[in-house]
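Chapter review: from sequence to fold.
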Amino acid sequence: MRTPLRRCFASLFGLLALAATAWAQAPAGAPAGSTGLCKDGTYTSTPTKKGACNGHKGVKDWYGAAETARPAAAAASSPAPAATTTAPAAAPAKKMSATTAAPGGGAGQVWVNTDSKVYHCPGTKYYGKTKKGEYMTEEAAKAAGNRADHGKACKA
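The token string follows.
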């Protein structure tokens, strides 16, 4: 009959043996520290498989540790690791810089996004902040064929 301590050590030893076999060994031609091979033939050394070959058509072979599930709160609070590969990564998508409003505007003026033909009222998120646009009266914006953001006309 086994004692509880022996069962604990036996279980621990079994888990360690399983974990040791879970890691695949990188091929001899892989750069030192490689944790995976991307589908485009480049290698990555990121610690986790998720996002490892982003921009490289995905992961073909993974040599690193097996992924363990993280709690949703921990995943949301910590940023995803950056991929380090031997080939240049694809350029990230450009984000609109909506921090400062364009000069001008004022009472009775709306901001018309000239690309989307949508106008924004003073005090709203995109007022004066889209990449292309101009200030004009709400009546002039409507006459030029523009429409209100989310169908909501400005308050008089």
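Two observations follow directly from the output. Confidence is low (pLDDT under 50) at residues 88-96. Residues 4-22 form the longest helix (19 residues).
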